[in-house]
TrEMBL record, chain A:
Entry EC number(s): 2.8.1.7
Keywords: Pyridoxal phosphate, Transferase
Species whose genome carries this gene: Microcella putealis
Pfam families associated with the record: Aminotran_5
Any one GO molecular-function label of the UniProt entry: cysteine desulfurase activity
The name this protein goes by in its record: Cysteine desulfurase
Cofactor(s) needed for function: pyridoxal 5'-phosphate
Any Gene Ontology biological process: cysteine metabolic process
Automatic annotation (TrEMBL), chain B:
Identification of the protein by name: Nitrogen fixation NifU-like protein
GO biological process, one term: iron-sulfur cluster assembly
GO MF annotations in UniProt: iron ion binding; iron-sulfur cluster binding
Highest taxon in the source lineage: Bacteria
Domain annotation NIF system FeS cluster assembly NifU N-terminal: ranges: 8-139
């Protein structure tokens, strides 16, 4: 199949937001939106944790199991051939979604595995595995890995571990008091010793776009690899790793309206084919003896064992779903929702929104701290009226600690979110302090 | 009462705002329990009688949601009331304490099927409402798990 051409490259768009009729049509495709919670219709505002699934994605996965299930890349029977074709078609769909080559797309179990894959492959190169081809990527004492202070733990801990294994040093670009990446400080952190810059595209706590236009050129000037955590951008913005000039980008399928258990790692072909594997086993080799093995090029090199076939096919269907909606229109709609959310929250006394102000480029997501009320208690008040929002540190403890809080309440929109739902959420958040007996400016 | 009002009964709100037993001192043997999901923390000490057979006082410090903090406060209150009744022999022995912890856990994990006995648990019986909120049971358990950890360590002689 072919995806529609995607001239929209992110940023401000002239496209029209979805009309109410279009939104109704979108919402009708999500069966879970028909259920109730505590006598209220489900109001799902936790898409940043995991997105709900349209029927066509659920059906695509089920249809594969019902009609074409077989192991891929092995066996010669007809079904095996059909399954292999469907699986590789899914890879092609992802490749066109990212505007990259098919063999630059690795299916992983989730984004976390993708980040570990690249960290361990570099770690193995640092141990001398992969020979001369991998040697340029080996890390040693004195080398530096750079992340930011707002990273999700999945884009932090694998680098802590890689540094510990190789003797490299992990450094970070700080955030300012609002929670925005301190761009001025980046020049003092990214430098000649930097070998890897690992940064998120959009923060899962503040919803802000990272200043890649500043950070990536700094890393390039230092000759560093750039690894992009695109989990929070892939569902909202066109993701073009080549235009962003990054070497590696990862995202998860389940945040993009696809199944759980599937993620994607994009890597530049020459990088992937130079690095030694992370996980090893069947389906990734050319020749195996009792002494050793030779490995296939990417993507098979990084997909040992029976892969996530049904999940990959489900993800491809999810990509067709968002592609048909059009990222320019998704972005236009979510921009309005985000502005409405931030403006609504700004009116409320005793509510602090984490991250830079209303005007900073962001997705339709906000994490708030309610004065005098723990996030867990605030979330319970929302849950009581059917609103599913996230509470906790959102796997970003260092950022919360930096901002002086242990937890926050996060609301995040998806393609099915309406302006009315945003208003309901803002009203429910406004009611939290009242419920806990804290009303008025000085309470 | 709505589900939310069952969860946040006035007793719980009061204890979360004005906690009992709050404040550790140097030399307390403590157990630190943490809910990694939300960052709730409770550090708790059991202060034993000189012969080590009875709980004279429960002291704790912590931060987190109202359920976790109120539960620690209510636990401390329950222990203190038993100790104040010590002449009648009601201050908790390790076995008494373990029995309370077991009953509390059973009720909290019952999804609303088993209420806490008001005769035994007093004000802490207000925490019965938590059991219908599976995601919050761990919050309410923190202080009690800390006490259990201290009991286990005491039994092991450490």
């Amino acid at each position: 199949m072919t995806l529609s051409p995607a001239p929209y490259a992110g940023g401000v768009t002239e496209a029209a937001p979805f009309s109410s009729a279009e939104l109704e049509h979108i919402r009708a495709q999500f069966p879970i939106l028909r259920r109730d919670l505590h006598g209220h219709p489900l109001l799902y505002l936790d898409s940043a944790a995991t997105a709900q699934k349209p029927s066509r994605v659920i059906e695509a996965e089920a249809t594969f199991y019902r009609e074409a299930n077989a192991a891929v890349h092995r066996g010669a029977h007809t079904l095996a051939g059909e399954a292999t074709e469907l699986y590789e078609d899914a890879r092609g769909t992802v490749a066109r979604f990212l505007a990259v080559n098919d063999d630059e797309v690795i299916f992983t179990s989730n984004a976390t595995e993708g980040l570990n894959l690249i960290a361990y492959a570099i770690g193995n190169a640092s141990l001398g595995r992969g020979g001369a081809a991998a040697a340029p990527y080996a890390l040693r004492e004195g080398d530096e890995i750079v992340v930011t202070e707002l990273e999700h733990h999945a884009n932090l801990i694998p680098w802590q571990e890689l540094a510990a294994r190789t003797g490299a040093t992990l450094r970070f670009i700080p955030v300012d008091d609002s929670g925005a990446i301190d761009v001025d400080a980046a020049t003092g952190v990214i430098g000649a010793r930097t070998r890897i810059l690992a940064v998120s595209h959009v923060s899962n706590v503040t919803g802000a776009h990272s200043p890649l236009e500043t950070l990536v050129p700094l890393a390039r000037a230092a000759g560093a690899l750039v690894v992009l955590d695109a989990c929070q951008s892939a569902p909202h913005l066109p993701l073009r790793p080549r235009e962003l000039d990054v070497d590696v980008a990862v995202f998860s399928g389940h945040k993009l309206y696809g199944p759980t258990g599937i993620g994607v790692l994009y890597g530049r072909a020459e990088l992937l084919n130079a690095l030694p594997p992370f996980l090893t086993g069947g389906s990734m080799i050319t020749t195996v003896t009792m002494e050793g093995a030779e490995y296939l090029p990417a993507p098979q090199r990084f997909e040992p064992g029976t892969p996530r076939i049904a999940q990959a096919i489900g993800l491809a269907e999810a990509i067709r779903f968002v592609d048909e909606l059009g990222f320019d229109r998704i972005a236009a709609t979510e921009h309005q929702l985000g502005a409405r959310l931030l403006a609504g929250l700004a009116e409320l006394p005793g509510i602090r929104v984490l991250g830079a102000g209303i005007d900073a480029p962001r997705v339709a997501l906000a994490s708030v701290v309610v004065d005098g009320v723990h996030a867990h208690d605030a979330g319970q008040v929302l849950d009581n009226v059917g609103i599913a929002a996230r509470v906790g540190h959102h796997c970003a403890q260092p950022l919360h600690r930096r901002l002086g809080v242990t937890a926050s309440l996060r609301v995040s929109a998806g393609v099915h979110t309406t302006a009315d739902e945003i208003d309901q959420a803002v009203a429910a958040i406004a009611g939290v302090r009242h419920f806990f007996g804290l009303t008025g400016e000085n309470a | 009462m709505s589900g939310l009002e069952q969860l946040y009964q006035q007793i719980i709100m009061d204890h979360s705002k004005s906690p009992h037993g709050y404040g550790l001192t140097e030399g307390d043997v403590t157990s630190h329990q943490r809910n990694p999901v939300c960052g709730d923390e409770v550090t708790l000490a059991l202060r034993w009688s000189a012969d080590g057979t009875r709980v004279e006082e429960v002291a704790w410090e912590g931060s987190g949601c109202s359920i976790s903090q109120a539960s620690a406060s209510l636990f401390a209150t329950l222990a203190t009331l038993a100790a104040e009744d010590a002449e009648a022999g009601n201050a908790w022995t390790p076995d008494d304490l373990q029995a309370f912890i077991d009953e509390f856990r059973e009720a909290l994990r019952s999804r609303g099927q088993i209420p806490l006995d008001e005769e035994r648990f007093g004000d802490a019986a207000a925490l019965s409402g938590v059991s219908k909120f599976v995601a919050r049971v761990k919050c309410a358990m923190l202080a009690w798990v800390a006490a259990e950890d201290l009991l286990t360590r005491k039994a092991a002689g450490s």
